[in-house]
Amino acid sequence: LGLDMEELEEIEEDAGLGNGGLGRLAACFLDSMATLGLAAYGYGIRYEYGIFNQKIRDGWQVEEADDWLRHGNPWEKARPEYMLPVHFYGRVEHTDTGAKWVDTQVVLALPYDTPVPGYMNNTVNTMRLWSARAPNDFNLRDFNVGDYIQAVLDRNVAENISRVLYPNDNFFEGKELRLKQEYFVVAATLQDIIRRFKASKFGSTDSVRTVFDSFPDQVAIQLNDTHPAMAIPELMRIFVDIEKLPWNKAWDITKQTFAYTNHTVLPEALERWPVDLMEKLLPRHLQIIYEINQRHLDHIASLFPNDVDRLRRMSLIEEGGTKRINMAHLCIVGSHAVNGVAKIHSEIVKTQVFKDFAALEPEKFQNKTNGITPRRWLLLCNPGLAELIAEKIGEDYVRDLSQLTKLHEFVDDDLFIREVAKVKQENKVKFALYLEKEYKVKINPSSMFDVHVKRIHEYKRQLMNCLHIITMYNRIRRDPAKLFVPRTVIIGGKAAPGYHMAKMIIKLINTVAQVVNNDPVVGSKLRVIFLENYRVSLAEKVIPATDLSEQISTAGTEASGTGNMKFMLNGALTIGTMDGANVEMAEEAGEENLFIFGMRVEDVTELDRKGYNAQEYYDQLPELKQAIDQIKSGFFSPKEPDLFKDVVNMLFYHDRFKVFADYEAYVKCQEKVSELYLNSKAWTKMVIRNIAAAGKFSSDRTIKEYARDIWHVEPSDLKIPPPNEPRDAAEDKTPNGTAA
């Protein structure tokens, strides 16, 4: 048609239906499940407005609505024939035949299906996203006949459920609309799953009633964090109230069906819903949760008589102040498997956060280290590197990333070293041109691209990076003639709109950038860029161009991280703490091939025991003192000298993430980075060792582990014949795959 594919790709809007790592992980998992031939469905909400678009105005983050459906979405197909009712509010009647949830308000869930193709295997799975619709008789059924116009306008109240994504990453906001969203996706999905089960030959009916004994053998449901935790009481409600199963049988089937993945240990991120809100919105579910809790606590009391403190710690209901439901506890009790997302995180889950539960059922707790899809995060975003690898080891690595270890043979191959460096340089030039075209900023493609892109959060310590920038700036000014390895520091990411400190961090970075980038003494030695509106499509551009990947969270706070893996696969070196998957990256590549610095989890624990005193570090480290004094005195913001007083105050008096404690080790480690960068050949050899060790971090490996250890399904590498070939020949070879 004479159209340019790259141009078309640029026009398409991101489907920004998640916040950060959690939503992107689900997308990688869908790609891997289809590629591994699993009969799997991804369920979620079709938000009309996804994660906000970020604009930077005068250095501040400003949010704009993400109207991603404005021009339509060609990949989705509405399925009105599968529309389902979801109930809210109402009350519970107890009758001879059991509990009845009555006088509810109904919202309809309209599914939209998006195809998820596997890689070159003719498998296409489905992602089904629910949209909220008001029923046609909404507000017109009863007393409200008079005001017809208002009744129609009030339909918005129901349809607001799928209007907008809550933009918090790693933070719980207990709003009624959010709980409605969580129950909405769960109620619609479970009806869908049960409808499919009953239609299959497994849902055999005894005269009238479905036999659900085989349900856990046919259905596995993975809870991606606690956000869909209401699925546990909802499935119990369906089994007990509607299908009339005895409680114990229903509970046994429910537990065998569900598995729960924990994604964070930050206390402020754990979902704890107020009991009174649950009682208003989902009265029957609250009763079921109470019953689950009663039986759970009876069991613990029988094992640990007179241990009331243990009962309090392990209860699903938290007393004291407003009564709350601890959703993580509900997930653990209601699932047959619980996993963390990196070895170190799974250990923390077992030994700290949920230690009472792990002591009770150690076999329930597992690790499944996260991964990324090499299709998007290598082939699609970095075709130059993908092709170079294929020339050396063949094309099979795309479906079996462990084959990257074959690259170890070429670590001393001078031609290969030069070619790897050349691809990186080309990617850097391309990204520099993009930055110039889109943002009118010129950067030096021969400088080191030092990149820190992820959600802005105190635990991710963008502030520590900022202090290093100020330190480099001060060193250049102190001795302008001294050799300095030129750097372009790129920081990007969104702050939750209500997260004051995160927004101040963005403003600080932009304010420092303004000073650094306009100082003639610095020239082209140091450039600081805040990358506006960081999102998947921008990650695909910046990651292949990166030299140094910043993964500098306080040890014990980043559950896994997946950006770290993307950088490793795309030929960047990592500067990082021993946190999340960084630990396993160092294990795979050898610690000497990463720039590891700072406190380990044990050191952080010890410092907490001793008491962290930021002042001590400030007093002992002159360069840290200088940087902080500059921020405090208004050196970077002369018109508003105390603009950053909140930031400085936090760093001294309530920094939970101990920025000052790792500052010195970080700066010293960065000196080692610069030193190695001067030796292009040695740098590139280290890059090759990293790429060769990245195989473990394919989401294909992760999904194989879930399939084997949790879902009990077998991946299939059978290539389904394409639709234009007769099926009968292949029919007898096709296994009856079970649904994950």
TrEMBL record:
EC number: 2.4.1.1
Record-listed N6-(pyridoxal phosphate)lysine modification sites: K566
PROSITE patterns reported in the protein's UniProt record: PHOSPHORYLASE
GO biological process, one term: glycogen catabolic process
Keyword Transferase: yes
CC cofactor: pyridoxal 5'-phosphate
Basic and acidic residues biased stretches: 725-734
Catalytic reaction equation(s): [(1->4)-alpha-D-glucosyl](n) + phosphate = [(1->4)-alpha-D-glucosyl](n-1) + alpha-D-glucose 1-phosphate
Keywords from the UniProt entry: Allosteric enzyme, Carbohydrate metabolism, Glycogen metabolism, Glycosyltransferase, Phosphoprotein, Pyridoxal phosphate, Transferase
A GO MF label: pyridoxal phosphate binding
GO CC terms in record: cytoplasm
Region annotation (Disordered) ranges: 715-740
InterPro entries listed in its UniProt record: Glycg_phsphrylas (IPR011833), Glyco_trans_35 (IPR000811), Pyridoxal_P_attach_site (IPR035090)
Annotated Pfam families: Phosphorylase
Complex formation: Homodimer; enzymatically active. Interacts with PPP1R3B; recruits the phosphatase PP1 which dephosphorylates and inactivates PYGL/glycogen phosphorylase.
Job of this protein: Allosteric enzyme that catalyzes the rate-limiting step in glycogen catabolism, the phosphorolytic cleavage of glycogen to produce glucose-1-phosphate, and plays a central role in maintaining cellular and organismal glucose homeostasis.
Entry's family note: Belongs to the glycogen phosphorylase family.
Protein name: Alpha-1,4 glucan phosphorylase
Lineage: Eukaryota, Metazoa, Chordata, Craniata, Vertebrata
